[in-house]
Amino acid sequence: MSGIGYRIKGIRKENNLNQSQFAQSIGISQGNLSEIEMGNSNPSSETLISIRTRYNVNLNWLLTGADSDDGITYEDHHEKKLVETYRKLNDYDKNEIIEIAQLKIRLSRTPN
Question: Is the domain of 90 the same as that of 61?
């Protein structure tokens, strides 16, 4: 089970809320939330925006399950962390990191 209802339920459980509490926090009824979590209905755009705003989740992840930032989908959390860290570097350090990565690739291809 990996649909949007499953992800919404995960957000609710992560925040230790029952369906009534979570539903109230995002402005829908408990019955509507139950139907969404079971996969019997889809959330409205207003509900999605409310969840995104209230619980600070990535909207692309909420919709697709893919970890994404700025329209980029990452393979895993390591790649995302690397990109986030890289973006904070100055141009000289960015070039140095690229050279190190290229060296690591060349060394990994060299037989022991």
Answer: no
